């Protein structure tokens, strides 16, 4: 491995043929011509079906009307005709189990005939399109399924379009689906999200009709921002921790990191641009509206982002894009890291969820308008959202809990674990006046202009409020940005919680308004009175200052806002009485489903920490310690040679180099012994919650002890001996 350091650029920067389809046909075409060519959307149905059948299908997709077998048969025939014309040979139900990946099982359209004189036929029936049957006991279930109880179902979700994925050797039709057990309980991320979306639609439409009786439905929208790192595959393959854990469990600080602030929005390296352009083109063909790419803060870190979409479709598109990015990275001899904190001392990666609401007329319900102080519809939804966050901040914190995000939250690139809301100064003043005066027209500043007094530079309007990157839930003009979501997370988890708690809050709001209407027929007065009653809670959770400061931690504690730093503690909210009531009342999770999910997430946490503990042991014993001993042996040989030549003083200087290596080697050995004992004690726990707590409190802290010795050794051992790529190679050689 010593040649790795001697020739660090060998094979770096050269792509190779991957497994994705040929892009030559798309090169030179307008992106608008390429967009959505590989998805079977509502407009595609219109081209293939009669008007009456299309109207029934539109009702299923847009209005959540029931799907009957006859309509499904028409849809299946249209899909197979379209797919086969594009050269598709197989199809699969594509679903999102409670793992870090999507799942699929491919079946051929081709059905051989029992008649030996007949070649067979390609077909897709309605029953095959609607329902398939994977093994439910082989996925994480948290006790909902036992090994001998394997039956489960995937059921087509027609509200998210089917799509074609192509490789150089063929094409497959992907059918988005929910994944449920034989008993009808959800085993995936999509099912509860769809239930939460439905609950929000019912509750928000009810509230919307106070202002517009013609509103028929309300939906949430999501625009995610995906951060990630790229590492050359040669260095990636030389790091077992990156390969198996997705992050470097140790590594000395590079002399240059992000302190120069020269990577953010900097010039994108050509090789990286080629990678970006390829996955973006494939994404556009799949209807994923990617519009943004740029360098992020840390070296080797980047970001992409789409236009916002309906939440269910946006979640599907994010998972699809992550898979597409991984495959494209391999083609370009990169490996992509979605982990929240792959490199210590550098910014981690998040997935900012920009979330808003819109009604059936396309009106954004979180648009303040020119006069937010008198915009009662805006204030109704704005205040109810903040109230929902106040009452259920612990549930929202649980929705983003993971081993990776524990490393990131509260660091200087991510908001703290304290759930708070940033409104900006203008809306804070609007809320303050509303609390005592109700609806007040005016009172907002006139539009300010930034004018640099340069004739060639245009004067620009100044936004009404600044941005706050330290807030986990800031309002950014016409939407909220949930900044605390981790880069590897499935967006469905936080969106399910967010939509559910808002649905629950809006239901309570409407019930109170309608109760008041029995004695006061003035609906606006009743709405204002109910909203004013929420203001003490709203003021408690609104914070527009520096979320990184120690003063905020003290202030938050005084306000009664929890600061839940670790995953095992955060996940406890999932099985609280409040969670059972909120999710049960909105029909999103049963008590059994909540407990099963709690068990799955705890087990996932334990497994991730256990893998890292085993990697510390393996990599230290087989790579780090041998390198340290080799360094000691080489220095000892040099000492003997110098001593034999009578160069006593020079020989003594070698001892000063050996001593710190020997001391750190001894410290590492002791640290590994303690880590092994702590892990064995944690593994002996019979209860998953107790095991997770032991890993959190007693195993994970020892990582820092062991890492300290290894990182110190990395700076002491001859570079030609050190067996692993260092941060400088991982971050700067692309």
Distance between the first and last residues' Cα: 20 Å
Low-pLDDT sequence parts: 5-9
Rg value: 29 Å
| Count of individual beta strands | 20
CATH fold-level name of the largest domain: Creatine Kinase, Chain A, domain 2
**Share in β-strands:** 5-15%
Mean pLDDT over the residues? 91
How does CATH name the architecture of the largest domain?
A: 2-Layer Sandwich
Helix content: 40-55%
Name the CATH superfamily classification of the largest domain: Glutamine synthetase/guanido kinase, catalytic domain
Number of domains: 3
Biggest β-sheet strands, sense, barrel: 7 strands, mixed
Number of helices: 23
Describe this structure in words.
The protein is of the alpha+beta class. 48% of the residues lie in helices and 13% in strands. It has three domains: 154 residues, Glutamine synthetase, N-terminal domain (Ubiquitin-like (UB roll), Roll), CATH 3.10.20.70; 363 residues, Creatine Kinase, Chain A, domain 2 (2-Layer Sandwich), CATH 3.30.590.10; 129 residues, Four Helix Bundle (Hemerythrin (Met), subunit A). It has 23 helices and 20 strands. The chain is globular, with a radius of gyration of 29 Å. The two termini are 20 Å apart.
